[in-house]
From TrEMBL:
InterPro entries, alphabetized: Com_YlbF, YheA/YmcA-like_dom_sf
UniProt family annotation: Belongs to the UPF0342 family.
Coiled coil: none
Taxonomic lineage of the native organism: Bacteria, Bacillati, Bacillota, Bacilli, Lactobacillales
Entry protein name: UPF0342 protein CBF53_02620
Pfam families per the UniProt record, alphabetical: Com_YlbF (PF06133)
Length: 117
């Protein structure tokens, strides 16, 4: 019998050997080594958490939060380390999305006969 959890753990190990993972890891190291970029990342992350909390609780975003988001977004566009990290992160998550689609395809296939034709 197949132990799917062993396969998942192996997939997690394999993920760390991909070019996309290694590229993101290197990009994050570069970001950590630049205090200005690291500070900007931390401010961006804190603001994103604040926005997500507001959205989850159904509260509208204040004008102050919207302005801060615009300001940080402009700063990110002018920061090479953050732009690189975001690009590398997107590439890794695209690969993960592709793998997830391959993994869930058999489930969708189970329902194919139920769909109206």
């Amino acid at each position: 019998m197949v132990n799917i959890y062993d396969n998942a753990n192996q997939l997690a190990k394999d993920l760390q050997e991909t070019e996309q993972f290694k590229d993101l890891k290197k990009s994050l190291e570069n970001l950590k080594n630049n205090p200005e970029s690291l500070d900007l990342y931390q401010r961006m992350d804190k603001l994103q958490q604040q926005i997500l909390a507001a959205q989850n609780s159904g509260q509208p975003l204040s004008d102050e939060v919207r302005k801060e988001y615009q300001k940080i977004n402009e700063e990110v566009q002018n920061n090479d380390e953050l732009k690189d990290m975001i690009t590398k992160e997107q590439a890794l998550f695209q690969m993960i999305n592709d793998v997830q689609q391959a993994m869930t395809k058999p489930i969708g296939d189970l329902y194919d006969d139920l769909k109206a034709k």
